[in-house]
Amino acid sequence: MYIARTITELKNHLAQAKNIGFVPTMGALHDGHISLIQESVSRNLYTVASIFVNPTQFNNAADFEKYPIDTEADLKKLKTAGCDLVFLPAKAELYPSEVADQKYIHDFGKLETTIEGAYRPGHFKGVGQIVHILFECVNPKTAFFGEKDFQQLQVIKRLVKLIGADIEIVGMPTIRESDGLAMSSRNRRLSDENRAASVLLYKALTFAKANIHIMKPSQIKAEVQALFSKDQWLDLEYFEILNPSDFELVEEINPTNAHAVIAAYAGDIRLIDNLKLV
Question: What is the pTM of this model?
Answer without folding.
Answer: 0.95
